[in-house]
Design a protein that fits this description.
By secondary structure, this protein is an alpha/beta fold. 30% of the residues lie in helices and 25% in strands.
């Protein structure tokens, strides 16, 4: 059936309650059923380099199932039981997918962002009590093995490190040169170090142990990671299977090919993209270890679409913006859909991309704590650009008043709260203290085993037609290109400077990343320091580069509430005014921001005033890449 409206969503729910659907219990059962149906069809493809003629390794569904069994057997032989953890810090590769799948068959898999500092990685390894870590063998232009070695030295619970050698993907001269220039990786820990592929290949191609019979925690995904110890969310088989089922029911068949240039440590790639293929039999293509960040990926992207006959692309606004700076230079007639998430999509970028690529864009919404998917602009229905669409079948979305905890009315703004098969009631995080006050009670509907609603921390509304709109973030997170940055880290870093009395960090509008970190500072009485000095101090104290402020301003006094809390809405208005005025001036448009006000439906709105001749088209050209809306002053 098509998926075009709330009526279609309700029709699917009315077929039966979720708990009575005949679905696989485990990931391996899901994979095995798909492999039985489509054994010889392509399942997984990876190429180390972005050129459309570069070597590409492809597994069929039968091969993927067999190799997953081998990897699971390897982990079980290394002492990994159902409650033990396999962590991985890897760029994208076929081994990354095998580790993700095999890890949750043997035990609990824990993907970790390889861009984190060693101290943060070690904190996650200790929090999850990881027994096995999978990472790269030393390789040119990568310091990941060295970073992981430092982390493992700080996590004595790790017993084994398995190394993936990307050398096997090389051809020609590069294959000969790399062993000669491979950097050293002095081992500074006590864990045994083994070769991933050598160990995998020694194991049988069928499971040597009994697959799990009941639903259980199968994956840990950490959230954020820019401040102290990231929170670790627990994902059960049932949530993983639910996301996979959505992909197969609403989007894919075995005839589809999706390209996923997003990292396999993120739920968007692992749970949504790969999961949809696991359930539907669609082929999934991972181009280069770094995905969109890989050398030449943007320049060759359209040619990769042509090479693999891609029908569906997974993307984020920053990638779409970069692609719009390249000419469509290949036959992309097979491409029919793009699923965009992670951050708001500017209207002008939406229009330009659809026109250039001739592809329908579906914006969606999900979060790690809910095992990802929550809503989507319906693939076959009306796309309300700027909204996050309608909730998926068996997902209930409530808008709850932050002040009174009552359900909000149509178009009334409150906190977005979610109940779905992906929400682990009361046990979202491994740290039980983090689950306090994270849920609202609520009556169930078609979700027979859901009793609580997860508080997302996002503010939003539901319009009269059932579309959900995000208007702000209760948690004040800065979302840079889909990556969460906690403003507290920036504020705490600057608070360590003797001249700083207060610091307020926010996300300022950015044409490419959606938001970038920005911080306003109030000095202690009589202090003297420059903005440049404070910027350098902040960068020296903030470990993750993505969290470095892109703008710092010293103010006489920061805006504060009656109880002395920094009032960030005023800082956001100030940032929008500054950024929009700069963009208008750069575009030589005789218009300026007179004020920024809060609209209950649209969020912060910039009100523009003319000082010369200017049209709506001029404004769209200057401000179309930004997500905050604008109006003319009446």
């Amino acid at each position: 059936m098509t998926y075009a409206s709330v009526a279609d969503r309700n029709a699917i729910e009315n077929e039966t309650v979720w708990s009575e659907r005949s679905l696989p219990v485990t990931t391996f059962q899901l994979l095995s059923e798909t492999a039985a149906k489509f054994s010889d069809r392509k399942a997984l493809s990876f190429q180390l380099f972005s050129e459309p003629t570069a070597k590409c390794e492809t597994f069929t569904w039968a091969e993927l199932q067999q190799k997953t069994a081998q990897v699971a057997n390897m982990f079980r032989d290394l002492g990994v039981g159902e409650t033990d953890v396999v962590a991985y810090l890897l760029p994208n590769a076929n081994e990354t997918v095998l580790t993700y799948l095999g890890g949750q068959v043997a035990g609990i898999v824990n993907p970790i962002n390889p861009l984190l500092e060693a101290e943060q990685i070690a904190a996650i390894l200790r929090e999850t009590n990881a027994k096995v870590v999978v990472t790269l063998r030393a390789f040119p232009k990568s310091d990941l093995p060295q970073t992981v070695a430092k982390a493992v030295a700080m996590a004595p619970n790790v017993q084994t490190v398995l190394e993936v050698d990307l050398h096997r993907y090389l051809t020609g001269v590069k294959k000969l040169i790399v062993p000669l220039i491979r950097p050293k990786n002095p081992v500074t820990h006590n864990a045994q170090v083994l070769d991933f592929n050598a160990e995998m290949n020694r194991r049988p191609k069928t499971l040597s142990f009994e697959d799990s019979k009941v639903d259980r925690v199968a994956a840990y995904f950490h959230t954020g990671g820019t401040t102290g110890m990231p929170k670790v969310a627990q994902h059960r088989y049932s949530g993983i299977v639910y996301n996979a089922w959505l992909g197969a029911r609403l989007l894919f068949t075995e005839n589809d090919v999706q390209i996923c240039p997003l990292p396999m440590f993120h739920v968007f790639a692992a749970i949504v993209s790969l999961g949809a293929s696991l359930a539907s039999g669609a082929q999934v293509v991972f181009p280069t270890p770094q995905g969109y960040r890989g050398d030449g990926v943007f320049d060759n992207f359209w040619k990769l679409i042509e090479r693999h006959k891609v029908t569906f692309m997974i993307t984020v606004p920053t990638a779409m913006s970069a692609l719009m700076q390249r000419k469509v230079d290949a036959d992309i007639s097979t491409l029919r859909l793009a699923f965009c998430g992670s951050a708001p999509l500017p209207l002008e970028l939406y229009r330009r991309f659809e026109e250039a690529a001739g592809v329908t864009i579906c914006e969606g919404y999900g979060l790690t704590e809910a095992t990802c998917l929550v809503s989507i602009n319906p693939p076959d229905g009306e796309k309300r650009v700027g909204s996050i669409g309608i909730p998926f079948p068996y997902t209930d979305v409530r808008i709850v008043s932050v002040a009174t905890q009552r359900d909000c009315g149509v178009d009334e703004v409150g906190e977005i709260c979610v109940a779905s098969p992906g929400v682990y009631d009361g046990q979202t995080y491994t740290d039980a203290s983090k689950n306090k006050d994270l849920f609202y009670p609520g009556a169930d509907s078609k979700i027979s085993d859901r009793r609580q609603y997860l508080r997302t921390g996002d503010l939003g509304r539901i319009d009269a037609d059932g579309y959900v709109w995000i208007t702000g973030r209760a948690k004040d997170l800065i979302i840079r290109g889909g990556h969460n940055i906690d403003p507290a880290e920036i504020e705490e870093a600057l608070a360590g400077h003797e001249a700083v009395a207060f610091a307020g960090a926010i996300g300022q509008p950015d044409a490419h990343a959606g938001e970038v970190p920005c911080v306003y500072v109030e000095l202690v009485a009589g202090a003297s320091v420059t903005e440049e000095e404070l910027m350098e101090f902040a960068k020296s104290k903030i470990h993750e580069r993505a969290a470095h402020p892109k703008y710092l301003e010293i103010m006489d006094e920061l805006p504060k509430t009656a109880v002395g809390k920094i009032f960030k809405p005023d800082l956001r208005k100030r940032a929008i005014t500054r950024v929009y005025n700069a963009a208008l001036e750069a575009a030589d448009v005789p218009v300026s921001v007179q004020a920024v006000t809060e609209d209950k439906k649209r969020g912060l709105v910039a009100h523009l005033i003319k000082s010369g001749d200017a049209t709506d088209a001029d404004i769209t050209k200057a401000l179309g890449a930004y997500t905050s809306p604008w109006d003319w002053v009446a």
